[in-house]
Every structure is written in structure tokens, then in C-alpha cells.
Amino acid sequence: MSCNCLAPDAADNWRELASANPRNPLDIIANATLNGNTGLFLNSTTFATPPSIWHAAGSPVALTANPTDAALGSDQQINVANANQWQFKKPTWNSDTKIAPPLRKLIYLRGGNQWAMSIPLTIGATQTSDIQLSFMENAATRGDHAGTIPVISWSGSVYTGTLTLLVTLLPTQGDFWMGLRIVDTSSNWSMYDSLWRVIP
């Protein structure tokens, strides 16, 4: 008899991935806001289950500039200087159109409760009031014992054009494949993925 106890990143085939427990984004995220609105943690029944199919045109979400680091303790000038120096030494994104397109989804982010990473995104003319963030591979699982997937959710406000995703990450290191699921006002479902390489 199998138990539903495997983490998605430990699965070595699609059968194991489908039966794995979804990972909780709070394992790496201490706080997340979108355009100033604080995300709500919830166990979602809709992160990975569109009523029909995913939007054929793909995701309207695009990264528009380098993610930037800022000190949360901005009253301490040493913290501000530290954030500026980290940013100066560590480019966080490569937008060069001559590199392979999948590499433009790789971003470097700073882990630690004293820093906030600002990730500038756009969704163009798309309008949405339903956005969820979680580990990408969670979308391949059947969810937890109740069929739900842990996410950080934004709903109730209409988002369009420029988005600023501000995340404070726990003091961790590693590669995390993240998915931002959007349902637009025409009921089109799409998923934007990016690889977060978290470093100190």
C-alpha cells in the first residue's frame, strides 16, 4: 500500500508526482504582497484545475526588469547600504534576447527575513481578480487529503498592466520552480512559471 507522503521534488516519475503531497509556499515565503495588497494563504481547490483547458495563448505575465533587493530595516542605514551593495554585486536577471528563452525565467533572489525582493511583472491589457502563487509542481499533484493545494492568493481587487510582486523569503537556499496562476475576466486560465534561485 502506498502512502501519500512524497514531496513533489522527490518524485522520480509522473505517477509519483501525481500522488505526492503538495508543498506549502510558506516553507520559503515569509510575506508576499501584490501591488501593495497582502496575499492570503489558503488551501485552494482551483490552483491547477481549469473548468476546461488552459488558455491556448499561454500566460499574459512577463517579467519586465531586474528584481531588486531592499532592506526592511530602512531606519538603519547599514541595512540600506547592505541591500544596495548586494544588488550591485549580484545581477538578478538576464533579459538578453540572445540567450535561450527559458533562461529568461531564471531569477536570483535574496533569502532572509530582513530583505524584500521586488519582482516587476506585467499582464498588459489582461484584467484579473484571481491570482494564486505556489510551487509549480503542485499543479501536477492531486492535492492533499482534501484535494486542495496550499497557495498565496490575491482576489477581490482588479489587477491589470504593471504588477509588483514583493516577497520576503525565509533564510533558505536552493532552486524553487514557482507558478503564478491567473484567471482573467474572460475566464481564461493561464500559468506563468519562473525559477527562483534563492541565495544569501
Structure commentary:
The structure is a single chain. Strands 1, 2, 4, 5, 7 and 10 form a 6-stranded antiparallel β-sheet that branches. Strands 3-9-8-11-12-6 form a 6-stranded mixed β-sheet, with no helix packed on it. The longest helix has 13 residues. The model has no long low-confidence stretch (mean pLDDT 93). The chain is mainly beta. It contains 2 helices and 12 strands; from the N terminus they run H-E-E-E-E-E-H-E-E-E-E-E-E-E.
Mean pLDDT: 93
Q: How much β-strand is present in the residues?
A: 35-45%
Span between termini: 41 Å
Shape: globular
Estimated radius of gyration? 17 Å
Number of helices: 2
Count of extended strands: 12
Helix-residue proportion: under 10%
Features:
single chain, 200 residues, 6-stranded antiparallel beta sheet, 6-stranded mixed beta sheet
Short account of what is shown:
By secondary structure, the chain is mainly beta. The chain contains two helices and twelve strands; from the N terminus they run H-E-E-E-E-E-H-E-E-E-E-E-E-E.
List the helices and strands and how they pair.
Layout: H1 14-18, E1 29-34, E2 37-38, E3 40-44, E4 62-63, E5 68-71, H2 77-89, E6 106-110, E7 115-122, E8 128-135, E9 149-159, E10 162-169, E11 174-184, E12 189-199
Parallel strand pairs: 6-12
Antiparallel strand pairs: 1-2, 1-10, 3-9, 4-7, 5-7, 7-10, 8-9, 8-11, 11-12
